[in-house]
Every structure is written in C-alpha cells, then in structure tokens.
Design a protein that fits this description.
Elements (H helix, E strand, L loop, with lengths): L2 E2 L2 E2 L3 E3 L8 H9 L5 E2 L3 E2 H5 L3 H6 L9 E6 L3 H14 L5 E5 L4 H4 L11 H14 L4 E6 L7 H13 L2 E7 L13 H10 L4 E4 L5 H11 L3 E4 L9 H9 L9 H18 L5 H12 L6 H10 L3 H11 L2
Parallel strand pairs: 3-11, 4-6, 5-6, 6-7, 7-8, 8-9, 9-10, 10-11
Antiparallel strand pairs: 1-2
Helix pairs in contact: 1-11, 4-6, 7-8, 9-10, 11-12, 12-13, 13-14
C-alpha cells in the first residue's frame, strides 16, 4: 500500500472540491466507504488576510479523519507563510499544492493551472512550502496547459519531486480541456514511470469500471474521486468491490432516499443557516436522477422554498 509520510493510502481518495466537499458531503462519502478525504481547497490569500470564510471551510469532526489539506496560490513566499498559518489552525497528515485548478479567477492570480506555464515558480513554491512545514507536501497537476506533452509534464513532475513533493496527484486533462474531453491515461502512465513517489490519477472516475481502467492503463497507485461522488457516495465501496472481483451493489431508491435525507440533515446541522436551502436544493438534485420522472423531481426540488417542502418533494418521488 502506498504511503504519504506515515499514512497508508487506499485506492480511492475523495478529492478537494471547491464549494462541494464540505463536512456534510465528506461524512456521507465516508459512511459509504471513503477513507481519505480533503478539506475544500484553501486560497493562500484568504489565509494571509484572515478571511472568516476560511474558518468555515476548515470545519470537521472526529468522524472526518484522516483529512488532508490543499492550498492554492502563485507566490512562493506567500504560500510558505500561508502554509504555516494553516497548520496553526488544523493538523492534516499532508498538504497538497494545487497546480491544476483551471478556474479563471485563480488563473488571473497566477495560481492553479497557470503554474504549468511557470514551472520554475511551481518548483519554488514546492521547495519553500516543504521547508516551512513539518508534514509531507504533495502536488496536484494537470497533464498540460493547452496541449498534451508527455515529456514536459513528466519533467515537471520529476522536478516537483526533486524540490520536495512526497506524492503527485494528476488530472488527466489539460487546463484548456477544463472538465470535458478524453482522459490521457498515457500521460499519467509516463508520470508514474518517471517519479519514485506515489502517483494518483484523477478525472472521469464516474464508475467502478472507469476507476479500474485508470489503475490498469496508468499503473498509478490510486484514484481521486471528484464529481463522480455527487449523488453517488456508494461509488467508493463499489470501486473496492470491483477491484476485489465482487459484484457491484447499486443502491435501491429507498437507500438513495435514506442517504439523501441524512445528507440534508447534516447540512442543517453543520452549515451556516444563511443559504442552507440553496445548498440543500443543489445536493438533492445530485441524487434525483436515473429513475422514472427524475427530471420532474429535480424541477420540484429546485422550486422548494424550505427544508420541509424539499422533504415533501423527496417523499413524493422517492417513495
């Protein structure tokens, strides 16, 4: 089993998902088989300016462990300072540096996938953050910025390792592809063959079969599950079953209803009340799919004005 520091890493990891992988979502995924998860991505500048929102992102409890952290930023000195601040607030087993986020807001700051165009800055960030903290530092990459270049991305991964990266997470698309188009398994395979630290593949892991394909075609040490877990937390256990040669256990409508309601109750318990119904509607839509009248059910969920009204909609369509 691969390790990051002293932590044994399972084959499936719940990815850090900005705006989505909050405590309620992580708890639901853990109940259905996820072992390792991440806090939502933390912006370096938010830490340096002591943003109140950062504290909300770092909410957790004793059931939500082990829990890694991911930091995003474009300046090495600032990232090192922010890493120290972050570790005064939480105690993750390792800290990941995001060089993969394709969102324009982050790109304009010179962070995320923009670092693929500025690899020397990326190496400096890895080196300075690794020197500033006493836990392992890892890096999240994409396979390129606007084109696929196996040799170049392998060199970037190798240099990240040389500068202190204890593992590499890699999304199998370029920045320009965003979240659509084919996954380049070959690029992930080349990275795995180039570095001597663990490599974890990401992108398009929507089913046990696709997780198995990622592992088989790349030789990577594990997979990161991201959007595939939306409304399908059972994916973690089913990937494990697939890899063990056991039958897949798809949830019944009754099981889906039970988990959805528990997810909504966690939101009610743990999230700030300001826009809790908006978050509940978003989450409900994740689960209301792949059954007769699912589109009608989603429309009714979107129209719900309160938690009781949303529960009534769920009762009506997931009877």
């Amino acid at each position: 089993m691969p390790q990051i520091g002293s932590l044994n890493i399972e084959k499936t990891i719940l990815a850090p998902l900005a705006g989505c992988s909050d405590l309620p979502f992580r708890l639901i995924c853990r109940e259905q088989g996820a072992k390792l998860a991440f806090y939502e991505m933390v912006d370096c500048n938010s830490l340096l300016h002591h943003s109140r929102k950062t504290g909300e992102l770092l909410q957790t409890n004793e059931r939500d462990q082990p829990l890694a952290a991911q930091l995003i930023g474009g300046d090495a000195a600032d990232m090192a300072k922010a890493a120290k601040i972050l570790l005064e607030m939480i105690s993750p087993p390792f800290l990941d540096i995001n060089a993969a986020c394709p969102v324009k807001k982050m790109m304009k700051k010179g962070s995320g996938a923009n670092l693929l165009r500025e690899p020397l800055t990326l190496y400096s960030i890895v080196r300075k953050v690794a020197a500033a903290v006493d836990i392992p530092v890892t890096v999240k990459l994409r396979i390129g910025y606007d084109k696929r270049d196996h040799k170049r991305i392998a060199a970037i991964a190798r240099n990240c390792q040389k500068n202190g990266a204890a593992a590499i997470f890699v999304h199998g698309r370029t920045k320009s592809q965003l979240y659509s188009g084919d996954i380049d398994y070959g690029a992930i395979k080349v990275i795995k063959e180039t570095v001597s630290v663990p490599v974890f593949g990401s992108g398009n892991v929507f089913s046990p079969e696709l997780a198995e394909k990622m592992l088989a075609e790349t030789g990577c040490d594990g997979v990161m599950v991201a959007r595939g877990a939306f409304g399908n937390p059972w994916l973690f256990a089913n990937i494990e079953r697939r890899l063990l040669g056991q039958p897949i256990n798809e949830p019944t409508l009754a099981e889906r209803k039970e988990v959805l309601i528990r997810h909504l109750n966690y939101i009610q318990e743990y999230r700030a009340k300001s826009n809790v119904i908006g978050l509940m509607r978003k989450v409900a839509i994740w689960y209301l799919k792949s059954f007769p009248n699912a589109a009608t059910a989603r429309s009714a969920a979107v129209a719900a004005k309160s938690f009781p009204e949303l529960l009534e909609t769920i009762d009506r369509y997931l009877a």
